[in-house]
Each structure stands twice: as C-alpha cells, then as structure tokens.
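hiii so um. not sure if this is the right channel but i have a protein structure encoded as tokens and i wanna go backwards to a sequence. like what aa goes where. can anyone help
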C-alpha cells in the first residue's frame, strides 16, 4: 500500500548536513576591561619639577652667594674702601645687600630657565603666581595681624644684639634694608619656599607635612642672622607656617607674597616711627624682638 503524501512524515535526506545550533543568549557587547584607577596627587599639587631640581636651586644659591660676596668684598676693598680692613668691608650692609641682589638675579634666571626651558611651562603659571586681585588687600592685612606672633618674643629667650642689627646702624642702611625687606627679599623667599619647595613636599606627603617642612628651613636660614637664637627661629617658623598655609589654601604664591610684604612692611614702618626715621635706633628697644 502506498503511504499518503505527507511532508511531515518524510525522512530527511541522507546527505543533509548537520546544522550548528544557534546559542539562545548572545552578549551584545564584550565585558568592559578593568582600568586601574590613578591616585590623585596629594594636596592637589603636581609641579613639573622634582625634588632634585629644588636641591639644585638650593646648591646654586649657596654657591653663588659665596662667590658673589667674595668678589664684591674684593672689589669694594680695592676700589671703594682701600684703607679699611677686610673684615670691616665685609660687614658693610650695602655690600651684603648688593651681594644678595646679584645672587637673587642669578637664581631667578635659573628658575625661569628651569621651568620654561627644561619643562616647557610658563614660569608664572608653573609656580602658581595667581594674583588675588582686590582680595590682596585682606592678605596684606593678614600680614599686619601676624605681627602678634612677635609678642611671643616677650616670653622666649631673645638676644639683645644680633648680626642683623648692623643693617640699621645708619639711616641710609636702614632705609635700604627696609626697601629690600618689602620687595626683592620676600619675592625670592616666596618663590623658593612656597613656589618650588612646598608643592614638591605636599605632592608626596600631603598639605600638613608640606606646610611644616616648608616652614622649618624657612626659620632655620635665619638662625645665624639672629644670633643663633632658637626663640627668634621659632617665631619665624610660625610666620612660615602662616605664609605656607596661605599658599596652600589660596593655591597662589602671589597671595603668600602679599602677606609676607604686609608683615615685613609693618615691622619696618613701626621701627621707622619708633626711631624718628631710623635716626635714633636706641629708641627701638621695645621693638628689639620685631626688627631682628
């Protein structure tokens, strides 16, 4: 008997190929690759220079100051003060300030070449010289308020005389020192300590250690200048803590510079008023802890 034609009952052909089963679930996208997270720089500081660059600046400053002071004293003894002893010539404040001026010029040039030549970064942008605008007035006022730190000298062992006193031996030397103290002096100190040193330390150790470890050498560089008085160094260390805190909070070296100028400027104005224009330095006894 013949079977009725029914396509559903027909057997598949013997030469048919086996079909590959289609997976029921297909991932439309490959699994995302895991990317390791990068740790952000501590305290938000990421300078283009390194700690070795800061050490180079330090070494250059010390070496240049030594060479320049030697050359200035030799030249002054030969051409300006031929009848005075070498020691007396070396103690003249005007020559010491001239040596610092020439040294600062050389160091500033090296800083600029380092940032712009080696790292191809605009100098003022690299050191975060962000001018605060009208807010700078309050920062200068903060420098005036910082004068309260000097009252600690009444409770600390402070020397009656220091090598720094020679810079106020005459009115001309005192005015020259005062001009230096509110211009080039704080500018270079802020550029080095708050501009170059602080961000390197803060990047590695955080803002708190950056502030403390920047203020420490800032105080120690005045150790011999103020007659090896640890009391004076402690006060300057505290001043450095305030200045570096201003730099850390505002992210601006210009801000700490203005605070520094306000502090130094107030000292100079008070000293000038107390001594009748630096003509009677014996009247500055009450300011001895301030102008040292």
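sure thing!! here u go:
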């Amino acid at each position: 008997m013949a079977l009725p034609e029914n396509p559903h009952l027909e057997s598949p052909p013997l030469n048919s190929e086996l079909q590959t089963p289609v997976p029921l679930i297909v991932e439309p996208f490959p699994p995302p690759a895991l990317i390791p997270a990068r740790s952000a720089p501590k305290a938000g500081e990421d300078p283009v220079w390194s700690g070795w660059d800061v050490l180079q600046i330090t070494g250059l400053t010390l070496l240049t100051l030594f060479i320049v002071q030697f050359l200035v004293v030799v030249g002054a003894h030969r051409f300006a003060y031929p009848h005075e002893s070498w020691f007396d010539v070396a103690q003249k404040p005007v020559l010491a300030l001239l040596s610092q001026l020439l040294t600062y010029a050389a160091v500033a040039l090296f800083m600029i070449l380092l940032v712009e030549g080696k790292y191809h970064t605009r100098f003022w942008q690299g050191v975060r010289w962000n001018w605060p605008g009208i807010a700078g007035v309050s920062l200068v006022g903060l420098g005036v308020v910082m004068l309260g730190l000097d009252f600690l000298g009444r409770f600390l062992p402070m020397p009656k005389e220091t090598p720094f006193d020679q810079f106020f031996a005459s009115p001309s030397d005192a005015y020259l020192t005062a001009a230096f103290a509110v211009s080039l002096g704080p500018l270079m100190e802020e550029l080095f300590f708050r501009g170059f040193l602080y961000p390197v330390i803060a990047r590695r150790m955080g803002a708190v250690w950056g502030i403390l470890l920047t203020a420490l050498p800032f105080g120690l560089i005045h150790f011999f200048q103020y007659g090896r008085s640890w009391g004076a160094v402690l006060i300057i260390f505290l001043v450095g803590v305030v200045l570096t805190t201003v730099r850390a909070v505002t992210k601006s070296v210009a801000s700490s510079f203005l605070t520094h100028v306000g502090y130094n400027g107030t000292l100079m104005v008070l000293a000038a008023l107390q001594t009748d224009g630096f003509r009677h330095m014996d009247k500055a006894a009450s300011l001895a802890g301030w102008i040292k």
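oh and The chain is about 60% helix and 0% strand.
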